[in-house]
């Protein structure tokens, strides 16, 4: 994995801008700590930071190859990601006359574009964001993987286009102001910590949507979708479906375990991480690669303060022990205490370039930092709940009938936290309603499907295209901030395409959430783990955390120059701070983000405003 950035300018000679592209590139150093490279021509400048995973000795970027059967013309590539079908593509390209100089997938991607042009993306199985400049025609092609695992942002203005793996690379350009407009504020205060696909928070910034590509030349820019979910009748019965799911998942995990550097799995003792770990252990045994290393995260004294509830029915610790014993992995338990978690809130903002999921981001950042000491690549169970329907809101009638995003049911409470002026300008209910309507309008309906099935298809679509990107973005930014590559097998597009069309009664085989996944894994996991009730990524239950973030927030609000004050209803927030306690539940986003996370989010917001010197164009 890596960090990429670039700049196309029709009005300026970029060969004189080496310092600028180097500055933009170096903002991504944490994503790629192993090497750095830039390339400049008159109208194009590329920068790349490399995290070496495949063929570390070669594969430097930007990578340049000549146009097939042409003289003095080149293709130039910067790329962030992994191709899991690189061996098959390489074999096909060799049969077409191409010769390889490296064993890395970067060269496979570049020669795929040389051979097939923009249509090459349809052949790729992997996670990626890349840009290719064709020198003879002076045109740029950029693409992002189908599920949006790897990020890519851009900013276009008259005569030029800038892009980067993270907004910070674009913000490093001297002509780009750190500005946010009303829409950016609405994304932060109404939608956040989620984000509407395509929106970049910063003024005039955009995110290239998942499964989309850009073609840009002197005639302008064209954005197009090369992949999207398609609805069709599902023809297999329950047993056949389970077998297909199991085969796809095993194949995907096998592909994603290929690496030239140390690899591990994240293990919580839940269904998803346990399944991937078990499949990894089987793969390692079959290929004589020794023991799999596993990592888990928890918090000091969390067992003393844990309170079971609907969204988090039990703690992970006993189940992790169960799986370690069952699989004989080399396990590394990681624990953090409250002061570390509070301090890491700011590091998480710097990684994301905006406020995020508070301590859930911060703990992941710390977790990845510890994993990086032992491994360069990790396998994670992210996305299974969105794809297979595991979250409680898939199974609750009030959530299904809410006519809004089920993770954003507290719009009125959130609106009350805003200053009257900002509330009037943003119109939170209307903004959220519009974004929800946009999402529903995209759903590929299946003709003849009854209302119950149509409702579940819509819920699945919302989760895959609106909630899952939030978690994938979090996973990428927190892990890459410490130079750790995290792979997500449940995001294999073949698996997602297949599961998308499984009828709800088969998805919930045995009247269980993710029932078909459980059935597919029979014999792979012990029955008690296989049928354990879902428990999400662990958060701290220590009352010291609430006390710490509440105290820090109130201290910041006491400063008359606090940059957060113009945007908030200070009286309301102080009331919440005065009445909240360790057991208070103020659900304002998702399943687990309540009082402590609200105060931490506002702390992150204050730090972001101050650190980035954000200016507002309203």
UniProtKB/TrEMBL annotation:
Residues 2-219 form the Glutamine amidotransferase type-2 domain. SUPFAM superfamilies: Adenine nucleotide alpha hydrolases-like, N-terminal nucleophile aminohydrolases (Ntn hydrolases). The keyword Ligase applies. InterPro entries: Asn_synth_AEB (IPR006426), Asn_synthase (IPR001962), ASN_synthetase/amidase (IPR051786), AsnB_N (IPR033738), GATase_2_dom (IPR017932), Ntn_hydrolases_N (IPR029055), Rossmann-like_a/b/a_fold (IPR014729). It catalyses: L-aspartate + L-glutamine + ATP + H2O = L-asparagine + L-glutamate + AMP + diphosphate + H(+). Pathway: Amino-acid biosynthesis; L-asparagine biosynthesis; L-asparagine from L-aspartate (L-Gln route): step 1/1. One of its GO terms (molecular function) is asparagine synthase (glutamine-hydrolyzing) activity. It is an enzyme of class 6 (ligase). NCBIfam families: asn_synth_AEB (TIGR01536). This is asparagine synthase (glutamine-hydrolyzing).
């Amino acid at each position: 994995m890596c960090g990429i950035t670039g700049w196309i300018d029709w009005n300026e000679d970029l060969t004189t801008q080496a310092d600028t592209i180097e500055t933009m590139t170096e903002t991504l150093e944490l994503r790629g700590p192993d090497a750095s490279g830039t390339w400049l021509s008159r109208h194009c400048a590329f920068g790349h930071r490399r995290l070496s995973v495949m063929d570390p000795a070669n594969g430097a970027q930007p990578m340049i190859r000549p146009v097939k059967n042409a003289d003095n013309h080149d293709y130039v590539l910067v790329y962030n990601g992994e191709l899991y079908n690189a061996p098959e593509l390489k074999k096909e390209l060799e049969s077409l006359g191409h010769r390889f100089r490296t064993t890395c997938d970067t060269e496979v991607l570049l020669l795929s574009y040389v051979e097939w042009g923009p249509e090459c993306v349809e052949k790729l199985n992997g996670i990626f964001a890349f840009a290719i400049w064709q020198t003879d025609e002076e045109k740029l092609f950029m693409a992002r993987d189908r599920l949006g695992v790897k990020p890519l942002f851009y900013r276009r203005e008259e005569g030029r286009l800038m892009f980067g793996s993270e907004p910070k690379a674009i913000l490093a350009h001297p002509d780009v102001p750190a500005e946010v407009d009303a829409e950016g504020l609405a994304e932060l205060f109404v939608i956040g910590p989620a984000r509407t696909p395509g929106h970049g928070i910063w003024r005039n910034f955009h995110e290239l949507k998942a499964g989309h590509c850009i073609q840009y030349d002197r005639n302008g820019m064209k954005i197009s979708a090369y992949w999207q979910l398609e609805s069709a009748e599902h023809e297999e019965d329950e047993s056949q479906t389970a077998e297909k799911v199991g085969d796809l998942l095993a194949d995907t995990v096998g592909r994603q375990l290929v690496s030239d550097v140390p690899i591990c799995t994240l293990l919580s003792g839940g269904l998803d991480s346990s399944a991937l770990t078990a499949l990894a252990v089987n793969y390692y045994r079959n290929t004589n690669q020794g023991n799999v290393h596993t990592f888990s995260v928890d918090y000091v004294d969390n067992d003393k303060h844990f309170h079971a509830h609907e969204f988090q029915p039990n703690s992970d610790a006993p189940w992790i022990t169960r799986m370690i014993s069952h699989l004989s992995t080399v396990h590394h338990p990681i624990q953090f205490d409250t002061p570390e978690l509070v301090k890491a809130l700011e590091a998480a903002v710097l990684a994301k370039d905006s406020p995020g999921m508070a301590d859930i981001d911060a703990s992941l950042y710390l977790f990845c930092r510890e994993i990086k000491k032992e491994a360069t690549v990790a396998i994670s169970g992210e996305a299974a709940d969105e794809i297979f329907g595991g979250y409680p809101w898939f199974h609750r009638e009030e959530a299904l009938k809410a006519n809004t995003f089920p993770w954003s049911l507290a719009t009125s409470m959130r609106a009350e936290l805003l200053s009257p002026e900002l509330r009037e300008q943003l119109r939170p209910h209307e903004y959220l309603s519009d974004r929800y309507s946009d999402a529903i309008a995209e759903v590929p309906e299946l003709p003849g499907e009854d209302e119950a099935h149509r409702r579940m298809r819509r819920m699945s679509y919302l989760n895959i295209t609106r909630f899952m990107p939030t978690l994938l973005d979090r996973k990428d930014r927190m892990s890459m901030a410490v130079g750790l590559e995290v792979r997500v097998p449940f995001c294999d597009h073949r698996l997602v395409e297949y599961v998308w069309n499984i009828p709800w009664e088969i998805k919930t085989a045995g009247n269980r959430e993710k029932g078909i996944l459980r059935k597919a894994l029979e014999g792979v996991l012990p029955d008690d783990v296989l049928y354990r009730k879902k428990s999400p990524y662990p958060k701290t239950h220590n009352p010291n955390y609430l006390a710490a973030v509440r105290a820090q927030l109130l201290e910041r609000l006491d400063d008359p120059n606090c940059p957060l004050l113009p945007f908030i209803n200070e009286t309301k927030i102080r009331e919440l701070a005065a009445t909240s306690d360790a057991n208070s539940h103020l659900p304002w986003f998702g399943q687990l983000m309540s009082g402590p996370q609200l105060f931490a989010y506002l702390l992150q917001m204050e730090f972001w405003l101050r650190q980035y010197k954000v200016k507002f164009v309203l």
